[in-house]
Write a structure and sequence with these properties.
By secondary structure, the chain is mostly helical. The protein has 7 helices and no strands.
Length: about 150
């Protein structure tokens, strides 16, 4: 009974604030406030608030939540053990598989070979006239037919 009274008071206060907001000609905000204010009354009228109040004060319900928590811990614990076991055996399984392309070269991770070649070109283009700087761009555009 107290939960219903609190919800009704919250809704009445929210509707009052919505009226003041509408008086200030902020109708969209007032409509949104009115919608939020009607939610607690709707929950009281559908019986959700009474059901929640009965559940919150029931020792059987709290014991049920404890059992659900224990089940969740068991699921999480077994999942962690499975992942740990799978992680230890993953290296053995990966070593036993054949490579997709055994003759392919390994990819370069640092990309250091391309950087030194780009640096001297950039340094040499600084000393030239500005019209020559666009020659690379023009070549790319001609290559693509633009």
């Amino acid at each position: 009974m107290i939960a219903e009274t609190v919800c009704s008071a919250v809704s009445a206060a929210g509707l009052g604030i919505a009226v003041v907001t509408a008086y200030r000609r902020r109708f969209l905000a007032a409509a949104r406030l009115a919608a939020y204010s009607l939610v607690p009354v709707g929950l009281v009228m559908t019986g959700v608030v009474g059901w929640l109040a009965d559940t919150a004060l029931s020792p059987t319900a709290w014991a049920g939540f404890g059992v659900l928590g224990a089940a969740w811990l068991l699921f999480a614990g077994t999942r962690a053990v499975e992942r740990r076991r799978a992680g230890a055996g993953a290296g053995d399984r990966a070593a036993g598989r054949d490579a997709v392309a055994p003759a392919a070269p390994a990819p370069s991770l640092g990309g250091t070979a391309a950087r030194p070649a780009a640096a001297p070109r950039a340094a040499s283009s600084r000393g030239t006239d500005p019209a020559e700087d666009f020659s690379d761009i023009e070549a790319i555009l001609k290559k693509h037919g633009i």
